[in-house]
Amino acid sequence: MEFFDSHSHYNDEKFDDNREEIIQETYNSGVTKFICAGYNIESSKASLKIANEHNFIYSIVGISPNDVPESLNEIDLMIEEIENIIKRDKNNKIVAIGEIGLDYYWNKENKDIQKQVFIKQIQLANKYNMPIVIHTREAIDDTLKILRENNVNNKGVFHCCPLNRELVKQGLDLMFYISFAGPVTFKNSKNAEEIVNMVPLDRMLIETDSPYLAPEPKRGSRNDSRNVKYIAEKIAEFKGITLEEIAKHTYENTIKIFKIKNCI
After folding, report:
1. I need a surface site. Which of 22, 29, 165, 178 has the fewest CB within 10 A?
2. Closest-CA residue to 154 (of 193, 115, 191, 123)
3. Are the C-beta atoms of residues 5 and 35 closer than 8 Å to each other?
4. What's the CA gap between 69 and 66, in Å, rounded?
């Protein structure tokens, strides 16, 4: 049984002390593939570097809503630099543009800039025939509106998807995949079972969002991809099927949405 962690941040400074050790322990534990996600210029460069150093790690690059520039004049320069990172990817390790989207929890004063950066990165994804990985927090209506008004050719994933019925329903209608992370295991996630059961097995991914959002029973500790099994176990419990079935479907779905080839 193999697992695919569809979203992690091994480019985060919290892994600086033992990054390589954790990566190897994760692989040996049965998490045989994972994606390292960028969220700004430097983390996107680091994501690609880590992916190039390991044949079982892939990269996504982009500007998150929490890392957008302060002025409109800087947007095009940042998008250009993300495109330059893509152009330098000689090993085809970059599989999506992300994480991108809207976040009105942390940032309420720059909504227009967030929207523009989101749309421009959708356009970048379309230019390079890539899916997108979406971060949305307290911005569901605007996120869905942008996706309805700006076609995403290769669709993508709602990463660490908020447990919101309307978002999941409309996200599925728009042909996106839904990725579940640690919050589905939290004891205070009262609607987690209902939301998980809204998502068919062929449209579901699992992730850790390491080093954040460690699932039960590891909640409160530094998260890493070995903990993806706890998320899979909870989903299997909710759906009344085996852990092996969840591992198989989510592994295959991740390969499919990110068009990963030469899996070894």
Report:
1. 165
2. 123
3. yes
4. 9
Which of 189, 100, 85 minimizes the C-alpha distance to 137? 100
- Nearest of 138, 55, 78 to residue 104 by alpha carbon: 138
Tens of pLDDT along 122-141?
Answer: 999 999 999 999 999 999 99
Whose tokens are 């430097």? That residue is 42
pLDDT mean over 81-92: 97
Q: Residue 199 corresponds to which tokens in the numbers above?
A: 């998502």
Q: Do 37 and 98 contact (CB within 8 A), yes or no?
A: yes
Listed in sequence order, the residues at least 6 apart from 37 whose beta carbon sits closer than 8 Å to its beta carbon are 7, 8, 9, 11, 43, 47, 59, 60, 98, 99, 133, 159
User: Which DSSP helix (H) or strand (E) runs through 186?
Assistant: none
- Which domains are present in the chain? 3-257 (3.20.20.140)
Q: What is the pLDDT of residues 144-172, one digit of tens each?
A: 999 999 999 999 999 999 999 999 999 99
Distance CA 39, CA 47 (A): 9
d(CA 132, CA 143): 13
